[in-house]
Known about the structure:
Blueprint: H1 5-11, H2 14-19, H3 31-47, E1 52-59, E2 62-69, E3 85-86, H4 91-104, H5 114-117, E4 123-124, E5 127-128, H6 134-138, H7 155-158, H8 169-177, H9 193-207, H10 211-223, H11 261-264, E6 267-268, H12 270-281, H13 288-294, E7 306-307, E8 312-316, E9 323-332, E10 335-342, E11 347-353, H14 358-362, H15 373-382
Antiparallel strand pairs: 1-2, 1-11, 3-6, 4-5, 7-8, 8-9, 9-10, 10-11
Amino acid sequence: MSRPLWTVVVSVGSLVATLAVAPPPAGADRPGAQRRALAVALDQLVADGFPGAVAYGRVDGRRWQVAAGVADRVTGARARPDDRFRIASNTKAFVSTVLLQLVGEGRLTLDDPVERWLPGVVRGNGNDGSTITVRQLLNHTSGIWDPTGERSFWAPYLDDHDWDRVITPRTVIALAVAHRPDFAPGASWGYSNTNYLLAGLIIEAVTGRDAGSEVRRRIVGPLGLTQTSFPVTDPKIHGRHLHGYDLTGRDVTTFSPSYDWTAGAMISTAADLARFHRALFGGQLLAPAQQRELETLVATDGGPDGYGLGVQRMTVPCAAGPTQVWTTDGGGPGFTSIAVTSLDNSRQLVLAGNVYDIDRDVRGLPPVPASAGSLAAMQSVLCTTD
């Protein structure tokens, strides 16, 4: 994914379409009514072109999960609420959390230059790791170019159909620094997966352990996220899962996660992702000082209201007035997902669909079906009613 998914959602007209959708009826805070409203929204996503969709909703202590459509277009297997999917850039929040925990332990600071931990890695063609901080990696103000935004990067997969081709994170970083930066560090904002590959290498430099192991040791294990994994080169999704498709209907479920690593390689379920969000925004994973850093926003060029350290602030249009929420999201070959949490952590939605067309995305075209269902799903859970 070369841009935040919320930008993609807006670009395909979902916001405009959703404003024409009737808000949840009065009394929708009742579990049955809210669950039905969420189910209707998922049915809309399927009607608009997603083969399948899954969702998790929570309002205070009430929780429910729903699914619509099919997980596999060939077998016709129905989508189930606990199906696994690639969470793509939702991974970034896991990685920023690990780095913030290390900051809280005094093992590095957010103002450390990248050069301190990765000497010589970000150098040349106007790139200078001594002028870029860890914080600027995490909030996408480093200016480092993202080669995954170019179609040529994807040629081995899209043209040669070499779905298990391994492209290492260091290869991606080398391509990035062979290109001039998009802007001087701190001068602007620009979404770049390269930032989070460098963040993964910094985790390894600080801890002496691989980044995936640190995510598992610090977050996945303690939270009991038993359906969450962090593959490095394995192109398969194991266990019961959604199949992922592009907009032509081609099955792209088998796809090497190697290039994405700490920028987006993780696999999870709606319930596991919701549990992580609940812990993260409930202050269970970070000390107060690091929680404040996580939620400190920089302005973005359109899309979210602001970007923190791997998380975003967004406004959901509601009948009673706009509601601000925290979000993480992900869009990569075959899968689209977004996790949304109210600012008081009392309401949550995790939504995933099994279409994302990376070929169209890197050509600046809508990578997902245009649908009012995504915003309708958010409204059904995040909007209060009288």
